[in-house]
What we know:
The complex is a heterodimer of chains A (309) and B (177).
Chain A: H1 7-14, H2 19-39, H3 48-59, H4 62-70, H5 75-82, H6 88-94, H7 102-122, H8 130-145, E1 170-173, E2 176-178, H9 180-191, E3 195-201, E4 214-219, H10 221-229, H11 231-235, H12 240-256, H13 261-271, E5 282-284, H14 300-308
Antiparallel strand pairs in A: 1-2, 1-5, 3-4
Chain B: E1 13-20, E2 25-26, E3 29-30, H1 31-39, E4 47-52, H2 62-65, E5 70-74, H3 75-79, H4 84-92, E6 101-105, H5 111-121, E7 125-128, H6 131-142, H7 150-171
Parallel strand pairs in B: 1-4, 1-5, 5-6, 6-7
Antiparallel strand pairs in B: 2-3
Helix pairs in contact in B: 1-6
Amino acid sequence: MVNEWKALERAGEWAGLEGTALEDYVVLVADVHNTAIADYDGFESYEQEYYDFLNQEVFSDERVVDILLSFGVEEETVDAFRTGNVPVAETFHSEHLLDHSLNELVDLIMMLKLVERYTTKTNQEYIPSRYEFQKLLFLTNLNLKQTETGSIVDESEFGLLETTGYRYSFTKRSSGPFSTGAYTDKYRLYASDLLDEEVLEHEGTGEVAEHEHTYGIKLSLKGELLMNRFRDVLRDFQSDILMYWNRAQEDAIDTFGELSRDEIHDYIISETDIASRSTGETLLPPRQTRFESESNDGFEGITGVVNNV
Amino acid sequence: MDRYESLTDVDTHDEDLVIICEHDELFGTPVEDIVSDIRDRINGDQLTVEEHPNGKQRVERHEWLVRHSIWFVHYEELLDGEKADTLDTYFTMLAIPRETEVFVCIDDDDEEAREQLKEEYRDRITIAGREDVLIAQASMHLNHANPANGEAGKQTIKAWNNAVCTLLEDFGGVNYG
């Protein structure tokens, strides 16, 4: 977790402040914060110690309580400030949760599930690199493409990828299949503080943007909180569409999670025509169908996660 | 730029602040005056801040830009300025450490721009709509990532410094695609 000081502003938003009132509050709490922290004897670590400091030394300050009262904040909320009981960690961690369209959201949630499943299944702290991360997404969609729909009259060349799977297009790079869209979405999860990346080795894998170091990927504390809180919902998808996708992803993790990069590379060579393709050519198209919020396709689980948070 | 191996390497720290806007002026005030007000609010004497104007002209020099731990960006430069695509690429390619604090200044009450920035960049940026708010936010940040704040403050700076070293090694000679 970084930039914990932003919890001050989040607490104001939690109190219902917005616009000019929120800005006036920020200016005031900055003064209170800066004075109080100068008198504090140094932090061993941020997170909880810092949140306790905010409650004891900043939020409960008389000037902060007064400004909340002047803006007509509810008495119960003001009391939380006055008594130093603002749920700082919760307001900080849940802010800016993904408010994307359903179409994007499903990919992001499935990406989080990929990270969680991998680390649980392999008993490792991280997905070991951006290389494995990209290839597992690819192999999930490849699994779906290779799964027949069961339709006798209308079998699609895309298999189940016709209706479910990631909406990422994979192109050929020197590292094999790579999706810029997936890379961008991983960034969005990182920017929302749901995923963490750490340098694990001072040697790259050859993956895009992984030339000199190898980056491990894991759920952040906030990501873990999200997945834990909605574990049941996310485990038991009501929708067949999501169930097949989830199954394909779990199969990919179970099959390739413990394999070496060379073994994954060899599998991809054997199962695709990548060897005969040119760099930049599309190897695997995205899911063909768009998910619509209005279509009631059984996405209650996914939308429920967001609505509840 | 060298890696910090231990927290004793962070007993003091010099913060570099880059300004990416048209005339090195934000909210109608010269940025140097704003930075001066921020300096007055920094606790202790272990942290210094030096501003670097003309960042807009050097946006494409990633290896230079990324060494700045605080950015003041006028919102138009991020949304539709001539270097907007380059800045956006830095964000989406994780070419800026998460510990780097990017303050985006909206000086004309453009609510549509505020919503668009929140949508696209979320927690990676901090939006300031007033000069006193910018000063407040930046001072809180600098009293947080501050060696005077004990091990936690030093650890924050160490993490930023080493993340920049890693990025310089990874992205230095590589394109972003």
